[in-house]
Amino acid sequence: MKKCLPIMFISFIFASFFCFKFSSVQDLNKDKPNSSYESFGKSGIYSSDLDKIDEESYLMDSPVKTAYESEKAKEVFLTFDDGPCNNNTKKILNILKDNNIKATFFIIGTKGEENPQILKELSDNGMSVGVHTYSHKYNEIYKNTDSYFKDYYNCQRVIRRITGRDPAPYLRMPGGSDNLVASKKILDNIKNILRQKDLKYVDWNVSSGDAESCKVSVEKIKKNVIDQCKNKKIAVILMHDTYYKNTTVEALPYIVKTLKDEGFIFKTFDDITQNEETQMVKMRVINRISI
Ligand SMILES: [Zn+2]
């Protein structure tokens, strides 16, 4: 027993030393604001939250999302000039109704007076009806700014009287805004005054080519439209709904189906948004200023 005493004493000293050391470590950890576990855990949570916020703000501002959104918003504006007439305009309206889509008709005032019923029908069926011209006589319209605006307001009055509605402030100038019939000086003056009056002149970035000759083939019209719509986020298509443009009518169902299949949404100048208008100004389809 006497031999055991020194061993027991040494064991006691060692045990006390280790107990003290262990409790000191625990006390030190108790006072730390973050234990090693909390520190790891919190930093994990924070960093993943930050990642999430970064990801969200990245998606909000990144060109990736912008491209994705604009990809979704592929839009087409079908526009028909020079009507209404008593055969093809009605047929076009029926095709549009069958497909549950709307289009814009830039009309000739005298044709509206000759065919008031079809003009009213266009408006009553939610089609956008805008001013093209009253007389469509280039030499008279583009003589000077006064003659242009006299013609413009004559057409506007016809639309008001027959449809009971004011036309949208979007118009199509006969021959387009940079036609070669009028002198550049007169055209520039007309366009300046239009912009001052907040009237917007609309050209096109897709031409069906249906006015290039008396009779353009159905296949040519289809190809012109579909080819030119490729890679466009906003397509404004020029077509004509006059008495002899039968091939335009024949090409239309295929054009509508193909554009629908390609993801285009059909819009008119009655439901155009500010953003779409801004895009079209940049694209030089609306209010194009000649260089
Ligand atoms: Zn025209």
Keywords:
single chain, 291 residues, alpha/beta, 8 strands, 56% helix, disordered N terminus, binds zinc ion
Number of helices: 12
Structural class: alpha/beta
Radius of gyration, rounded?
Answer: 36 Å
Strand tally, please?
A: 8
* Structure ligands: zinc ion
| Biggest pleated sheet | 6 strands, parallel
Cα(first) to Cα(last) distance is 116 Å
Tell me the fraction of residues in β-strands, as a range: 5-15%
Compressed to H and E, one letter per element, the order equals HHHEHEHHEHHEHEEHEHEH
Unreliable stretches: 1-7, 9-69
Helix content: 55-70%
Shape: globular
Taking all residues together, what is the mean pLDDT?
82
Overview of the structural elements:
The chain is built from twelve helices and eight strands. The N and C termini lie far apart (116 Å). Helix 10 runs parallel beside helix 11 (246-261). It is α/β, with parallel strands linked by helices. The protein has helices at residues 4-31, 36-61, 63-72, 88-98, 109-114, 116-124, 138-141, 145-163, 184-196, 218-229, 246-261, 274-282; strands at 75-81, 104-108, 128-133, 170-171, 200-201, 206-207, 234-240, 265-266. Strands 1, 2, 3, 6, 7 and 8 form a six-stranded parallel beta sheet that branches. A two-stranded parallel ribbon has the order 4-5. Residues 1-7 and 9-69 have low confidence and may be disordered. Zinc ion (ZN) binds at residues 81-82, 132, 136, 174. Zinc ion binds at residues 81-82, 132, 136, 174.
